[in-house]
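Take a protein:
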Amino acid sequence: MGSIEHDDLFIFLEAIAHQDASKIQIALQQLANHHCDYYQISDTLISVLHHIALLQLFPSQAFDFYTKHPEKIKQFAQQFSPEEIQLLYQIALLGRRDLALAPTPKQGFEMLIIRLFTFKPVFLENPTSLQTDTLATTPEKSESTEWEKLILQLKLSGLAHVLAQHCVLHQMQDHEVSLLLSPQQQALLNPETQARLEKALAEHLGKNIKLTIKLGNKNLVTPAEKKLQTEKAKQEALLHTVKKDEKLQSLLSTFSGTIQTDSIETF
């Protein structure tokens, strides 16, 4: 791959770091003039982001790519946070996959760059409080929180873990634990899975446990439901930000692009 393509990629990253839409437009036009291989450029972009992430995690070590472009890789490692690089890497990876789905590789790459330019990590304070306060719950909130913490400490996997995520703690006394299961997830309840969850509780608590699981009401707010509500709220907040972004709208207008709302992801 020639140095011109590397220079173009570095221009993209600098434009993203400084939120300079005009540089993005110029760099895209330069690539088009060079008749570049957009698949290869995407692969190299992913490799660049990978090496930036490595440098951020292991600043004292030198990697092959870093030795070829030390100043640039070091510059980007300082300009972007590790969270931003992780997000950019994920977007680039998905964009590379979608090149084959676009009308042309050129158009697919342009949308990849637009996504990189637009999306940023969304950090919400106390995200679990966004919507759960307005939802009806059967158990007390303290018990719900206690169950969520307990699930994290249990050695669960597979269906037993899924079952626990769709339950809330109803009562815990001595050797008895009572859970309420979301009625929409009734199919998860079977003797084998319940026995696995009961065994995990007994091992963690250090005593014999009798586990009972009953169906709760349809408004039960389980850990799984909380996570879903939080992700939905984050998704809506991100979509609102995207639609209000004047720079993105300008890029979309220039390249006749559209936003696929189902492709927007939170990290």
User: Anything to note?
Assistant: The longest strand covers residues 167-173. Residues 123-139 have pLDDT under 50 and may be disordered. The longest helix spans residues 223-244.
